[in-house]
Amino acid sequence: MTPAEIVLVGVDGCKGGWIAVRRASGSAPSVAVFAGFAALLAALPDDAVVAVDMPIGLPEFSSKGGRGPEALVRPLLGARQSSVFSIPSRAALYADTNDFTTIEAWYAAHIRASEVAKTTSDPPRGVSIQAFGIFAKIREIDALLIARPDLRGRVFESHPELAFCRLNGDQAMQLPKKIKGSINPAGMAERKALLCRHGYDMRFLDQPPPRGAAADDFLDAAAMMLIAGRIASGEARPFPDPPARDRFGIPVAIWA
Fold it and tell me: Which domains, from first to last, does the chain contain?
């Protein structure tokens, strides 16, 4: 099967779970939200290539700047580099795996994770609230890749701002997608125009995102789908190259 015939999937985490933009050979792209990552994979052919905006491969000990991939890609992104979170140690990610029923319990768990992160990093570093907010989703993918080594050759980590940069001739986006937590229409328009230059129809990108996902999640998943295509065709580059491996043998690299 050639890369053009492989089902390509771009995925981003969202409030409702995971938003996926999918395209099969000769078909228009489609978008849907899945409650779990395993359910998303179950809806795909076994040879689909998936690029997801979520850290894959966890360190036992975190150095300055997080894992190796974060430190490598930030300098490429200019003003957009703050969008690349530092990922702490595996122990910090698994410090508290409870479902939180109150905001107080959530903040207490963040503090516990930060304390573990500080003891497993040099220089000692806690966990940002933004990074802590995606811990459950990181663990969801991590558990699947530990249990199913076959997935490691077709589920790849990427990052939207690195994706947009690479798709834009290695020039980072000029405008942010959000300003103070709210959608920035000019930044969204800049990204939609770039996605259209790579084959998307503006009518597809202009549709309301599915329930459970935000407009920026939708665009990020659309960019991830293009990176899945670059991976399938051999155009994408991993940062670092070659990828590192965590203690379970899971590749550690951001692809774009």
Answer: 3-57+155-233 (3.30.420)
